[in-house]
Design a protein that fits this description.
With 376 residues, the protein is of the alpha/beta class. It is globular. It starts with a helix and ends with a helix. It is 38% helix and 12% strand. The strands form 2 sheets. An 8-stranded mixed beta sheet has the order 2-1-3-8-5-9-7-6, sandwiched between helices. It has 12 helices and 10 strands. The protein has a single domain, classed as Alpha-Beta Complex (Spore Coat Polysaccharide Biosynthesis Protein SpsA, Chain A).
Length: 376
C-alpha cells in the first residue's frame, strides 16, 4: 500500500509529510555522524546524506575554544606554576581552552624505558618524553587532531582570525597529494592529509629540490619586516616572498627542516607515526631534531606556516629555559614579564592582555565624583 495514501486518508497534509521526512533525515544524519565519530577509520564511507559544509562555515570553527582542533594541549614542568598561570591567563583572554600535559624530569626515566640509540642528557630526554606523552594522549582519547604548545609562548591577539584564514587556505590546499575525502570536507577545517602542522618553529628550511611547492596568501595579521626575524625573511625570500609582499603575505609549504616545538598540530595518524619513529624504533636526537630528520627521510608528512603563528616569550635570565642546569651567576629574570618580548607577531596577546585587564579603581571613583559635581 502506498504510505502517502494512508497519510492522506488520515487527514494529514503535505506540510506534515515534509516535516516527518525532514525529521527522519536529521535523525539519520545525527546517528550517522555519531557512528563516524566512534569509527575514525571509516571516513571514506560517509553516507551521502551528510552534506558537505561550505568552506566558510568550516573555517568558522577556528573561532571555537580549540581553534577548530579536537583539543589544545600544553606542556609544562610540574614546578613551573608561573608558566602555567601565564598560559591559563593568556588562553582565557583569547577564549581558548587548554589542557595541561605535565613535563617530565629526564632523571626519572628508567634506563629500560629510554628508546634505542638515544644518548641524550636528562633534560633533553625529559623534553622528548613529555611530547611523547602528548602524542599518547591524542591516541588514547581518539582525538582527530590536536594542537600541542609549550608553556613559554606568545601568540597574536587576533589568533582566531589567523586560524580562520589558515583554514580557508588549507581547504583550498594546492599542495595536497590526494583529494580531500567527504569527511574532511564536512568536518576537518585544516584537512587531514598531514601528520604534523608546524606553527611555532624557531627556524626552518624548504626542501632544496621542491621550492616550487608553496602556497602564498594574504594575511592582514602578518608581522612587519622589522618584527620578523631574519631566518624567516630568508625562508620567505627563498620561496618567492620579498619586497613589498613582506608584512602582507604568509606561506604554506611542505615541512622539511623545522626546529623547535613551541607550537605544532598533529593528526591522530601523525601521533601514531611519531610514536613509531621517535620511540618504538629509537630516538636519534632532541625531539625537534628527530622530527625534522624524520620529515627529511619522508617517513612523516607535514606543512609549515611562515612566519610562524606562535613565538617564544622571553624575559631574560634562567627563567627562559628548563633544559639547562641553573647558573648561579645568571639572573633569574633580567626583565620579567613587564618587559618581556616576543618576535614574529604583529600584535602580542601577552602585551594586549595587560592593557585589557588594567584598572584604575580609585581614579575611577575620583572621576565619577568630579562628574557628579559638574552635573549639579
Amino acid at each position: 500500500m502506498n504510505p502517502t495514501l494512508v497519510f492522506a486518508k488520515s487527514g494529514l497534509r503535505k506540510p506534515l509529510l515534509l516535516a516527518l521526512a525532514a525529521g527522519f533525515a536529521i535523525v539519520f544524519t545525527v546517528t550517522s555522524y555519531a557512528w563516524l565519530r566512534s569509527h575514525p577509520g571509516n571516513h571514506n564511507f560517509v553516507p551521502s546524506i551528510i552534506s558537505t559544509k561550505s568552506k566558510s562555515a568550516l573555517a568558522a570553527t577556528a573561532w571555537n575554544e580549540t581553534l577548530g582542533f579536537s583539543k589544545v594541549l600544553y606542556i609544562s614542568m610540574p614546578y613551573r606554576t608561573d608558566r602555567q598561570d601565564a598560559m591559563n591567563l593568556l588562553a582565557s583572554m583569547s577564549d581558548i581552552k587548554i589542557k595541561l600535559i605535565l613535563g617530565v624530569d629526564g632523571d626519572s626515566i628508567n634506563a629500560k624505558a629510554v628508546p634505542d640509540k638515544a644518548d641524550l642528557r636528562a633534560s633533553v630526554l625529559g623534553c622528548w618524553r613529555a611530547h611523547a606523552d602528548a602524542w599518547r594522549d591524542v591516541i588514547d582519547n581518539n582525538f582527530e587532531t590536536a594542537l600541542i604548545l609549550e608553556d613559554d609562548i606568545d601568540w597574536d591577539e587576533n589568533i582566531h582570525q589567523i586560524f580562520h584564514d589558515l583554514s580557508l587556505q588549507m581547504q583550498n590546499n594546492k599542495l595536497r597529494l590526494v583529494k580531500p575525502t567527504d569527511h574532511e570536507r564536512a568536518s576537518a577545517p585544516y584537512g587531514l592529509d598531514w601528520d604534523v602542522l608546524f606553527l611555532g618553529q624557531c627556524l626552518d628550511q624548504a626542501h632544496p629540490d621542491h621550492r616550487d611547492l608553496v602556497q602564498i596568501y594574504d594575511d592582514p595579521n602578518v608581522p612587519s619586516r622589522k618584527d620578523t626575524q631574519k631566518v624567516f625573511l630568508d625562508q620567505m625570500e627563498s620561496l618567492g616572498v620579498e619586497g613589498d609582499d613582506v608584512g602582507k603575505k604568509r606561506l604554506l609549504s611542505p615541512a622539511y627542516g623545522p626546529a623547535c616545538t613551541m607550537g605544532y598540530a598533529i593528526s591522530r595518524k601523525g601521533a601514531q607515526r611519531l610514536l613509531l619513529n621517535l620511540s618504538y624504533l629509537g630516538l636519534r636526537g632532541p625531539v625537534d631534531n628527530d622530527m625534522a630528520w624524520t620529515l627529511q627521510d619522508g617517513k612523516i608528512r607535514g606543512y609549515t606556516v611562515t612566519p610562524p603563528l606562535f613565538a617564544a616569550w622571553r624575559v631574560g635570565g634562567q627563567k627562559d629555559s628548563d633544559n639547562y642546569t641553573p647558573n648561579p651567576n645568571e639572573a633569574m629574570a633580567e626583565n620579567g614579564n613587564r618587559a618581556g618580548l616576543s618576535q614574529n607577531l604583529k600584535s602580542s596577546a601577552r602585551v594586549a592582555m595587560v592593557g585589557q585587564l588594567a584598572m584604575d579603581n580609585w581614579g575611577d571613583y575620583v572621576r565619577k565624583g568630579l562628574e557628579a559635581k559638574a552635573n549639579t
